[in-house]
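User: Fold this; tokens only.

Assistant: Input:
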Amino acid sequence: MMSEISSRERPGTRSAPLPAVSVVVPVLNEADNISPLFQEIIDALTTVADFEIIYVDDGSTDATPQVLAELEKNASKLRSLRHQKRAGQSAAVRTGVNAASFPLIATLDGDGQNVPADIPKLLQLYLRDFSPDGKLLVAGWRKGRKDSWSKRMVSKIANGVRSAMLSDETPDTGCGLKVFRREDYLAFPAFNHMHRFLPALMLRAGGRVLSANVAHRPRQQGVSNYGVFDRLWVGISDLFGVAWLTRRTLNVEIETMTSVDQDSVK
């Protein structure tokens, strides 16, 4: 298990191993998508030094718990956790990050629309650009989004309003594919729907955000667990709270006084 992400791990070539990562996948009633997506994640992480895959079931009422339990019997890289009752996607992500063994986290949605093969690319970008303090979020950008016209339009409106209010430098905050450091995420204030505002929270903490083009595909199994307009109104209502929070950030720089400075103030 790694305790640090050091500059020595920056890959000099394409064949250099990537650092260990905990992949967090929140799911709600995604029984048919779990096994194929899990295998895709396994196949995508062949160049990673070590990894674990943490599925968090947010109180599913279908066969999701049974599928995860059966899969876990023969999958040493899989850990599954379950909420007793539905708490929301942000809560599921936080449960997974809290339980993670490694300092670097990758997240993706459990509906199969994100492509796990993009995870190594986001890890490479993180290693290329992270600074000594580690505060960097690499966010996926679904330029070729494979959703319905209504879902894309609502997302476009919400992204435009959010960007204007928060200046979070991110064209697609709704993309589930993200890479960040565990300790940075756990330092963010926790609230419902926070997963929609991770770029703004990273910037608020003095970090940086990098967006990278990722693949996106149509849902193959099951149905969306969120209504189109539910996403819009919930996102906009939360937006005002996050805007309030970012305006009240305390940014304090500590200055160490030398002995000469101390003498001068006596």
